[in-house]
Design goal:
Layout (H helix, E strand, L loop, with lengths): L13 H33 L2 H17 L1 H19 L3 H36 L4 H16 L1 H16 L3 H25 L3 H25 L16 H46 L3 H15 L8 H8 L14 E3 L5 E3 L5
Helix pairs in contact: 1-2, 1-7, 2-5, 2-9, 3-4, 3-6, 3-9, 4-5, 4-6, 5-8, 6-7, 6-8, 7-8, 10-11
Length: 343
């Protein structure tokens, strides 16, 4: 039995089949984290802290907008597995066609609504002015290119419903490799900044979607995909939505809670910084913040270990040369002050 083909989970030892099916999914979760981590490392290293904060702040909003795909993907896995296990070829073909059609409709909806609502939503959440433009640019590009990511997620759900979790993993690993290379080229070499990270993500997801579609279309021994299967009737759409709705709602609740956490975190961070700069309070924590900024944002790292030395002495001023950092300026008394909060 080939690892990269549909697998009838009713055959063989159930425990062995479950383990064999689960391992690629576990590896895929790790690969997905690597995917996101590389984005953060490259944008933080070659653009700066504000760009890193912009990408991070955009994440929960992006997740909230793509809950449609999460719901469709889960519903697709369940519905496809049911028809595949029952060996109903025509119904399976219609179920897969329904997934493809619904994904296209959801993608078009997000491509229209996403860019129009990104800016207002960021302002509603009081996103700091220092990063809001980057956040909006990142989200707009991702929303306009959501087709690739949407189809990869849904077609991966279809393959998992057919018992083939290994192919979905391979395509994710290919997307991760493409994303890493394009991140470095667009951001480090071409200087595209946050937009470069977004375009790298869109292109990588499109590559994985094309690979998944080619794989699906070659499974003619299991189902066929013709024009009539793309509009199978309301029963299939209702079933797909019913099966995927609980997962989509769960993800939406989680994303909204993350938006609240990020928003409150930004408020507390700015309140802490204002106390530190204007009243001279909490010098130790302030040194920690600027040390981290200097290590991540400086091209040459800490200048002469100033942060470490001053922190060891408990000094209230910040070490290092922060004049090149756009987020800070130095006061006449030597303290570092956030220009966005300057009086």
């Amino acid at each position: 039995m080939s690892t990269f083909h549909a697998v009838d989970m009713r055959e063989g030892n159930p425990v062995t089949q479950i383990i064999r099916f689960s391992i690629p999914m576990l590896i895929g979760n790790i690969a997905q984290q690597l995917y996101n981590t590389v984005d953060s490392i490259i944008v933080g290293r070659f653009v700066g802290d504000n760009a890193l904060a912009a990408v991070g702040s955009a994440g929960p909003i992006l997740n909230l907008m793509i809950v449609l795909f999460i719901g469709i993907s889960v519903g697709a896995s369940i519905m496809v597995s049911q028809y595949f296990g029952a060996q109903k070829r025509e119904e399976l073909s219609k179920a897969i066609g329904c997934c493809i059609t619904l994904t296209g409709a959801a993608s078009l909806l997000i491509m229209v609504i996403g860019p129009l609502t990104a800016g207002p939503l960021l302002r509603l959440l009081n996103t700091p002015e220092s990063i809001i433009a980057w956040c909006e640019e990142y989200l707009t590009i991702i929303f306009l290119g959501v087709l690739g990511g949407g189809y990869y997620n849904i077609l991966s759900g279809v393959m998992r419903g057919l018992g083939d979790s290994a192919s979905a993993l391979i395509f994710l690993l290919v997307a991760t490799a493409v994303n890493i290379v394009l991140d470095y080229v667009f951001v480090a070499k071409l200087g595209m900044g946050v937009a470069g990270v977004a375009w790298a993500t869109v292109i990588a997801q499109l590559v994985s979607a094309v690979l998944a579609l080619v794989k699906i279309l070659r499974m003619k021994d299991i189902f066929e995909l013709r024009l009539r299967h793309l509009m199978p009737g309301g029963r299939y759409f209702r079933t797909l939505i019913r099966l995927g709705l609980p997962s989509g709602v769960t993800q939406a609740i989680f994303s909204m809670s993350m938006i609240v956490v990020v928003h409150r975190g930004e408020r507390h961070r700015h309140a802490h910084r204002r106390l530190r700069d204007d009243a001279g309070l909490l010098p130790g924590h302030g040194d920690d913040d600027l040390c981290r900024t200097e290590y991540r944002g400086g091209q040459d790292g800490p200048r002469g270990g100033g942060c470490a030395k001053r922190h060891a002495r408990g000094h209230g001023h910040f070490g290092g040369d922060h004049r090149a950092d756009p987020a800070f300026r130095q006061r006449p008394d030597g303290r570092v002050h956030d220009h966005a909060r300057a009086d």
